[in-house]
Amino acid sequence: MIRTFLALLALLVAAPVAAEALGTTNHITPNLVAESAAPAPGSKATLAFAMRPAATWHGYWKNPGDAGLETRVEWTAPKGLAFGAIQYPIPQTLIIAGLMNYVYERDYAMLVTVDVPKGLAPGTKLPISAKLDWLACNPSVCVPETAVLETELIVGDGHADPAKVAQFDRWRAALPRPLASPGHFAITGKVFRIEVPLPATAQAAQPYFFPLTDKLIDYAAPQKVARDGDRLVIETVAHEGAAPAKIEGVLRLGADSGVSLEATPGTIAAVSAAGASERSGDTGLVATLIALGGAVLGGLLLNIMPCVFPILSLKALSLARSGKSEADARGEALAYTAGVIAICLALGAVLLGLRAAGQTAGWAFQLQDVRVILILLVLVSAIAFNLAGLFELPAITGGDALASKGGKAGAFWTGALAAFVATPCSGPFMGVALGAALVLPAAAALAIFAGLGLGLALPFLLLGFVPALRKKLPKPGAWMDRLRRILSVPMFLTALGLAWIAGRQAGVNGMTLALTAAFIFTLGLWWVGRRQQAMKPAAWWPLIPALLVTALIVATVRNAPAAATVATAEPGHERFDEVRLAALRAEGRPVLLYFTADWCLTCKVNEKAAIERDEVADAFAAKKVVTMVGDWTNGDPAISRFLAAHGRSGVPFYLWYPAAGAEPKELPQVLTPGMLAALPA
């Protein structure tokens, strides 16, 4: 009642302006959009009210706060169509003259689900009209606005344009996700406290509780937040006389992410001293520091990957045998580090940009495009043949030409290459770090990506700055040439794996084109090698036509349709589906849920060494465990949203759901058969 009065008061105060505004162009432009114009009989179609506020104007959430009005809709449609309630995205907070408003100051979309009756004949037209009423405000005036929006559905096979699906996936990603377990709240005098069961691994960079229950809290009062293990406690000022039997609301976890929840009265245990220190002002700092440490450790571990270790080894040995001064050694180490960090920052910036644009991208997003896999295949093949001696690439192997001149440039590009080929997986320590980067402010997120690069470059950086470490390296000799040939083997195996991934993403034809590109590029390098051996000038010019042909092939390859690339699930395995997961939990079945991708080395090792072992299969069969697999090879918005909701931005990710209905347990990123077989059902 109070906020309605305040909204009406604002209208009266601004009556002259409002009167002039009414009947003219709306300050928030609405558009009614259907995800599929041809829904199948008996299916659920999704509509969206896409709202575009003009500059300085805003619309309101379902609970507008101290002032404002929620959006209302009246439907006119053929009999049998059933429209669900409006689903609102995560709102923003806006204080004007001491009043808290829950608003949208940028483009937003409200979704509505429509039940299409069974038995409708294909081609049946379903005209839909929606009378939409909302309140548009700026800092000085509020204007009630209205529009009649129309669309027409034609019963069909449910096909939807991929661009529309992607658009709706972005809008769905902005909706709060239901929290499986209820929370508890307590009101003591003027103090309101709510305890939310949130796994300690879930990121909460900007936590804020938006109540849907009216007259519950003082909207404008500050909210104090504390983390304590697997719970998050929010404290604020209670509304006078508030005593509800149950409350509903939304907990914001990041700029555009959050969960919807219900809470019942209960006792809320005191927060530990460590958790109590995480108030709203320093939660982001603590989360950033923890994530930064994880990123550095995760980057350090990437050095043992088979596509990075040979590059690091040869670069380290070239530094040891070059006999450079301390200043030159430090210069090369810094150049190598700069190359690594530059690539990590570039990938991080692109990833943040995609997510800011509404894409559900995650770490290693670039590997979901077969053209990137093809480029990596060509690069790795070139490195492998270089190490095998087909031609000389001094920037990597430390040849005399670059050792005597331009060493820093070579070190920079070697570091950039090492970082680029090291991105397929988020290994130990990286999962939490990169997940945090996607919900922290941009500056903090970029610091985490830089930390990942620093960890990856750390071994070579230490070699450059600690002479004692260089002295411990073996003395140069003929064995270095043999080692170089040996180190070509893991690079050839990496190239073979990339060719297999190309086949999985683009089919046999795509893999054939990828191998053709690698062959042509290698042929050009062989020609370069022949000219190098003959000491001919401009030895690199034959690579130009090879590059042109390779670029042409890269431009023509495309990912195959998803149906052609997703492998049939293994016996006893089910594909990831949130509805099916909820049904299995309701049945009391234990579930192992894991997310994988063909380009993720850690994922494949865990699958072969642990998940697909006979002893694990026998143990799971005895406990009636259902294994559910989410394949993220080509990207999947549903998987991306699920990962983001659990504070993750990449794979592998493993969750164990016990049969008793307890909270899921996150498993480590390195699995063993014994660990899986011993999981309690």
From TrEMBL:
It is found in: Cell membrane. It comes from Sphingomonas natans. Coiled coil: none annotated. The chain crosses the membrane at residues 285-312, 333-352, 372-391, 412-438, 444-466, 486-502, 508-528, 540-557. Residues 1-21 form the signal peptide. This is Protein-disulfide reductase DsbD family protein. InterPro entries: Cyt_c_assmbl_TM_dom (IPR003834), DsbD_gamma (IPR035671), DsbDN (IPR028250), Thioredoxin-like_sf (IPR036249), Thioredoxin_domain (IPR013766). The lineage of its organism: Bacteria, Pseudomonadati, Pseudomonadota, Alphaproteobacteria, Sphingomonadales. Its main location: membrane. PANTHER family: SUPPRESSION OF COPPER SENSITIVITY PROTEIN, THIOL:DISULFIDE INTERCHANGE PROTEIN DSBD. It is a multi-pass membrane protein. It comes from the Bacteria.
